[in-house]
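Homework-ish question, so no full write-ups if that breaks the rules, but can someone show me the predicted structure for this set?
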Amino acid sequence: MHKLLADQPGTKKFLLGNEAIARGAVEAGLAFASTYPGTPSSEISLNFFQMSRESDLYFEYSTNEKVALEVAAAAANAGVRSMCVMKHVGMNVAADTLMTLAYVGVRAGLVILTADDPYMFSSQNEQDNRYYGKLSGLPILEPSSAQEAKEMMGYAFDLSEELAEPVIFRTTTRLNHSTEPVTLGKIKQPVTRGDFIKDPFNYVTVPAVSRKLHIKLLRQIEQAEALSSKSVYNFIEGTGKYGIIANGVSYNYVADAVLDLGLTGTAKILRIGFSHPMPGELIKYFIADCEKVLVVEEGEPYMEEAVKAFAQEAGYTGTIKGKAKELFSRLFEFDPAMVRKIMAAYFNVPFDATSAVDLSDVPELPQRPPNLCAGCSHRATFYAVNQATKGMETIHPTDIGCYTLGFLPPLSAGDFLICMGSSAGTAGGFAKTTDKKVISYIGDSTFFHSGIPGLINAVFNNHDMTLIILDNSITAMTGHQPNPGVDMQALNYDGFGQVSVESVVRGIGVPHVSVIRPYNVKKSIAAIKEAIAHKGVSVIISKQACTLFERSRKKLVGKPFYVSDRCKNHRNCINDLGCPAFYVENEKVRINASLCSGCGVCAQICPEHAILPLK
Amino acid sequence: MDTTRLIIVAVGGQGNLLSSRVLGEAACRLDIPVRMSEIHGMAQRGGVVESAMVFGDARSTIISDGEADLFLAFEPLEALRALNRCNAATTVITNTSSLPPFTAAIGKGVYPDLETITRLISSKVGRLITLDANALAREAGNELSVNIVLLGALIKTGKLPVTADSVKDAIRETTKAAFVETNLKAFELGVGAV
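A: Not a homework solution, just the prediction itself:
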């Protein structure tokens, strides 16, 4: 049985924050879940996927976050407790749905989880999604620990049903990826079947209906603010003349620092866990007798702005600070020492910092950047494109996935990246305004997610560009999730359809379509030359299963290669291909046989034919 | 209870997430408060993987620069790179078996020799323990047990509130059945190396 389905209330398990969230949803009677995978949220969905194979839970990997939210919104309006999981930037994709779903509301609980990523450990920006609460009017809940996340999930579903609207559950990477002992609760039996009762004058958002629904939403916001001020998740801890307002993981750093700095009895904490609407009455009560107030929050001054507004209403004249040059930054993550130091300075208490060792005499160390795997088919494709375009001036818009790593030398296969699907759209702008050949890269999952509209646009507006779809038949970057192009039958999953990338591309009417097998270097280079010579839109589908996934499924069949005595140290293998299976020993190139996948690409490009398969 | 802070650094694929999980499970068995944080988005792409483990009553799950009481490195270059996590009193354990990064292979940077690395580390921290965990793992019967060898060395320092017996129980429960025997042997070899 899946460990998160164990019906053992009271037992403690060492759970990742994301596991605790998934368990909390199951305990709350979750019946329906959807997602588009994205770090740091991916393990929540992975656990739902696994549990859905052995329970009544319905779970799906949707094509993108917008679709995922629509699927879940309908399920919740059919009366089934639902959840939709995404990373922070996924909310941008889902925002169109979100904004009007807030008007329409839900019948059964709907929790929308957004996993923010301060410091951008694995993201293209560090936007603060608490503003989606303000923008949409929907409630936001934010836990500070894995245990609390599990408890809060039940509260989120109840709140969603009480207010008849979705609830946004906001986490940050350090919550998602922290592990701690979590005490399990009882699992509520889910209601898995519902019914949709027609009510077009509340469900069909034509202007006349929406005007009415917006009035309803404003009433709900008022109701939510009253609940926020009374919520057990907005609590005051300790006493003292100083006030600290903190949320999420910042609260942990503040609580530790109060002890470390001996501020117990001098500083009290207001922990905000229900952060939209902000608890106005509670904040006014909390700050009333404070000499000064410090707001501790990663990201934007979201709470600080609200606290200052409430203070003004209440006629509070003390100092309230948070984001400032000498205090907290809007940038990146906080850490315990940083919070301790700033609290010590702001409240004027002595503080001895532990100093880190001095590294000034350490020589410059070779970097260890993440790299495309040994034998990765993307490397083979990038190599072939680089060879096919030798001497040409090119621009390579790239996209979000493992292949983004190809932007590093020696492949240098990526010049411009904004967000999911942007390779297809931005190509057109470069093609119309420059004299360079535009060749974009996109993965199979990203193509389905949001690359298709960009390609349709290119065909309609006749952009001169080549789109290379790197089809490795899986969503590799986030941990090998399925996507619509995956043959699920081959992975032993029944009940799925399959969408062919090639059929979609041909259906769009792309005038020049070719399919290459990137491990065949010569043929691939020839096909790429032909495609980029076509004036107008051309698409190349580069098909080869993800090496890492094949290795994990024990499906790799190629024998590892070795460098024979014929090697004359041209080093094209290292300098042009840069596969991490190579290493240099006594000035000779060697291949690490345990890393080599046997793709044979290096053997094809060696001018001396010195690279041979191991017998 | 007092707080003990441990940082573990490794290269993706060396299995440090399993070792921190085993250690966490061992602490849970003893009802020792433990919190752990990991950054592993790129673990499978050959990047650096770091775990922070906080034993005791602190609520934070991460460890600031200079605040590690214990520092365990699976690879000597990564030990030196992450040394800013340590202070003058930190106990450092490093594997001496190196995994040169690809950048060194293509001539972008030079991998320092082991002697330089250990000299630099031991001149800055409270105590440095070195062991060839790969050799000991091979001796135990499986080179992939490097993570468990290092766990043995870590426990032997006596700096953690976790007992060897609880770690062995956690190994039996958490690691794959086929590897339990070699892992237990690897653990003992690690204990013996300190």
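Now go work out the reasoning yourself. Hint: Chain A has a mean pLDDT of 96.
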